[in-house]
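Ops channel
N.P.: pipeline sanity check, posting one input/output pair.
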């Protein structure tokens, strides 16, 4: 597996591995990397509105870099997702990347602060029922 297969890029730009259609998300917001030992490293890419790990008590902690687990909830700007959803979305994008992570627990698809996210035909992920900020659909 090459190095690019071990990294998931997240942001508002449709060119990201996980495009998030929300204006609070920077074009290149964050990266999720699978390290050699299988741990997951989340890195904020100097985003405007920050990357946060939400603790079990509900408190959000802004990070520059942090080791995360598939069950952790992460906030990119105003969008909250679990790490397992990011890994699943990368897998569903047709990538041949072999992400060596522990099996994910069952979670609702694309949980976002009470909203359901869907993938627009252009590939961007957006809140269900809202216009896509990338293509307008």
């Amino acid at each position: 597996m090459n190095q690019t297969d071990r990294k998931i890029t997240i942001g508002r730009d449709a060119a990201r591995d996980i495009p998030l259609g929300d204006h609070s998300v920077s074009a290149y917001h964050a990266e999720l990397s699978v390290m050699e030992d299988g741990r997951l490293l989340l890195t904020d890419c100097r985003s405007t509105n920050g990357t946060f790990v939400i603790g079990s008590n509900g408190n959000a902690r802004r990070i520059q870099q942090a080791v995360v687990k598939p069950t952790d909830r992460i906030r990119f700007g105003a969008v909250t997702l679990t790490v397992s959803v990011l890994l699943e979305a990368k897998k569903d994008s047709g990538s041949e990347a072999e992400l060596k992570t522990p099996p994910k627990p069952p979670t609702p698809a694309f949980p976002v602060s009470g909203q359901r996210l869907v993938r627009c035909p252009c590939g961007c992920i957006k809140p269900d029922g809202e216009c896509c900020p990338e293509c307008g659909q």
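N.P.: looks fine end to end. The helical segments are 83-92.
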